[in-house]
Design goal:
By secondary structure, this protein is an alpha+beta fold. It has a domain at about 65-175. The chain has five helices and three strands; from the N terminus they run ααααβαββ. It has a three-stranded antiparallel beta sheet.
Length: about 180
């Protein structure tokens, strides 16, 4: 072996020893999985948990408002007299949920439609509906629409989201005669 080959062999041996030592040092890093898990939870887990609770509270509030609108419509649908009693419609809706108190806003409206086109034209009086509903099976139907809404403040705040959110729901039912 010549002097040049011996020099190359020594450098190769030093490089190999350095690489092996580096690989052994990597094997001895105990606890790195725990550190990685901690970092992952900090960057992904906590924000995910906070967002889930934020939108969970909004969903519960939406369900409460929908139940209140439905309760008001259930009261109003029992007769034409009850359908015109807006004070008791509001009372029935507010009695359904105690989550919002006086912050729950309830409104109701009565309208008429033809039985063959329920999602069609809406009429303000029964006389107009009776005149428009012609044909053997078509007759006028009285419907009550109750809308409930409330402004809610979800827990915490996120950039880009409003501090208060208005949730609302509408329930429509046919008034029984």
């Amino acid at each position: 072996m010549g002097p040049f080959s011996q020099l190359v062999a020594r450098r190769f041996h030093r490089l190999r020893s350095t690489l092996l030592a580096g690989c052994l040092a990597l094997r001895n890093e105990t606890g790195s999985a725990v550190v990685e898990l901690g970092l992952m939870l900090a960057f992904l887990g906590v924000p995910l948990l906070l967002a889930t609770s934020y939108f969970g509270v909004l969903l519960i509030d939406q369900i409460e408002v929908a139940n209140a609108a439905h309760a008001g419509a259930m009261y109003a649908m029992t007769s034409s007299t009850f359908a015109e009693d807006s004070a008791n419609i509001v009372a029935a809706a507010q009695a359904e949920t105690n989550r919002f108190g006086s912050n729950l806003s309830v409104s109701s409206s009565i309208y008429y439609v033809c039985s063959t086109a329920v999602s069609g034209t809406q009429y303000s009086t029964q006389a107009l509906a009776n005149a428009a509903c012609t044909g053997g099976t078509s007759h006028s139907l009285e419907l009550i629409s109750v809308t409930a809404s409330a402004s809610v403040t979800p827990p915490g705040s996120f950039p880009g989201h409003a501090k208060t959110v208005t949730v609302s729901s509408t329930s429509v039912m046919e008034v029984e005669e």
